[in-house]
Design a protein that fits this description.
Layout lengths: L14 E2 L17 E8 L2 E7 L1 H12 L1 H10 L2 E2 L6 E2 L3 E4 L9 E4 L1 H17 L25 E3 L5 E4 L3 H22 L1
Antiparallel strand pairs: 1-2, 2-3, 4-5, 6-7, 8-9
Helix pairs in contact: 1-2
Amino acid sequence: MSEVTGPISTLPGTSRQPPEGQMCDNHPDQPAVARIQGETDSFGCEMDDLCQKCLDERRAYRCSEAGQAEELEWRTGACEWCKNHVTDLRDARDYEEGMNGRVYRVCGACIKRVNDDAAAELDAMGYFDDYGDDEPEEPDYCPYCNGDGDVHGFDGEWRGYCTCPDGVRLKNQAEARYRAKSSGGAN
């Protein structure tokens, strides 16, 4: 595990590139190819640095029967906001506590209620009137890959490159490395 971060706005499970030269937590002689956000609270989070072997093992486990059962168990329990017993728990933050606030385990109904309430409040304040039209401004990041450039399924399995500019750039870089390696091997 790499050092614990300071306050961070992303949620557990977020995948990102490890820093240059970072080694695997479990195999210190292997370079890390992925950094997965682990336990997270308002003070920061733990990051798990994984080599390709560890990443493949993690993905295989998450797709296995035992991994699916663990996922189902993880999503089942009492919502921290409405206190109901549900089967669709997920991590979320309270907007009023800020993007680096506590991470709560909440149900889909509570997420929808909070998002609808926030949208109604912004609408009542005339927040969207400043744009001159009814079209919301496009986000600064891709909603499919969050600006990472690659897309992963719910099981953590890599699905491919995103079609956004970050994904196209990432794919072009990978193809350039492949061409360079291929042409270097042919000489």
